[in-house]
Design a protein that fits this description.
The chain has eleven helices and ten strands. The chain is α/β, with parallel strands linked by helices and 287 residues long. The chain folds into three domains: 121 residues, Cobalt-precorrin-4 Transmethylase, domain 1 (3-Layer(aba) Sandwich); 106 residues, Methyltransferase, Cobalt-precorrin-4 Transmethylase, Domain 2, CATH 3.30.950.10; 37 residues, no CATH class.
Length: 287
């Protein structure tokens, strides 16, 4: 049976039998909140993505506490032990290397598991790269889609890129530095070069940058540069303009013929898009 609780009763933190999901800085350590510091100092133990990284925060704020590792490699084996500790009246903080735990890491798995045992999960809010990039981009932010890191498998990746090209809402994407150039070429292929985009790197740090403002400009900027730092991408939504007055039935037939001739759907769509002067996604999404 799950516990019901009221925040008005939570005056003495940390409390026993509670998992605290604690937001940590995404770059500038001064962004750590007083409440987060109190939790990290006084919980029974801290579960963290990388103990070496979390020690930097602890040293900065003179925090001394027990650390255990909790990451994508060991989360399945660690979740039962953490639940056991909570049931023994301990309080536990979960932190990621940067930002909010549960965003693109196994934090969501442990939160679900802990709540399924009738135990409490409390979020101590902090910095989030996705929201920080969105707010500073100047793009529509009342509604948005967060995709995190895109899948690496070709079919899954093509499917999500096609969907992203059709989103009318702003899209936020995470990417690693060594894969950014590839992703920009893919976004050019699916969204066109004039789609508005902002590439943010090193958010809240000394060398924070915001690069854009179109996919074409971003590709040109990074063409001769080595990409460094943590990358968050904000892509403006599709305006649903008519791409071209081409005959859809004719395109469907040509797409079918090319696939039957041995081309992949992606290659056939790319060829027909170039031939007809339309975006690849328009061809790819034909049913």
């Amino acid at each position: 049976m799950k516990n019901n609780y009221s925040l008005s009763h939570r005056n003495q933190e940390p409390e026993s039998r509670v998992l605290y999901m604690v937001g940590t800085p995404i770059g500038n350590l001064n962004d750590l909140s007083y409440r987060a510091i109190n939790i990290l100092k006084n919980v029974s133990l801290i579960a963290c993505e990388d103990t070496r990284h979390t020690k930097k925060i602890m040293n900065k704020f003179n925090i001394s506490n027990k650390l255990i590792s909790f990451n994508k490699h060991n989360s399945l084996s660690k979740i039962p032990k953490i639940i056991k500790d909570l049931k023994e009246n301990k309080s536990i903080a979960l932190v990621s290397d940067a930002g909010m735990p549960g965003i693109c890491d196994p934090g969501e798995d442990i939160a679900r598991a802990v709540k399924s045992e009738g135990l409490d999960v409390i979020c101590i809010p902090g910095a989030c790269a996705a929201i920080t990039a969105l707010i500073s981009s100047g793009m529509p932010s009342s509604g948005f889609v967060f995709e995190g890191f895109l899948p690496k498998k070709k079919n899954e990746r093509e499917k999500i890129l096609s969907e992203i090209s059709q989103y009318e809402k702003t899209t936020i994407i995470f990417e690693s530095p060594h894969r950014l150039k590839k992703l920009l070429r893919e976004l050019f292929e699916y969204c066109g070069g004039e789609r508005e985009i902002i590439i943010t790197r090193e958010l809240t740090k000394k060398f924070e940058e915001h690069i854009g403002n179109t996919i074409n400009n971003a590709i040109n900027f990074f063409e001769e540069q080595e990409v460094k730092g943590e990358i968050t991408i904000v892509l403006k939504g599709s305006e649903r303009r008519k791409e071209s007055k081409c005959d859809e039935s004719k395109l469907k037939n040509e797409l079918k013929e090319l696939i039957e001739a041995g081309l992949s759907k992606s290659s056939a769509s790319k060829y027909l898009a170039k031939k007809n002067g339309v975006k690849k996604s328009l061809i790819y999404n034909l049913n």
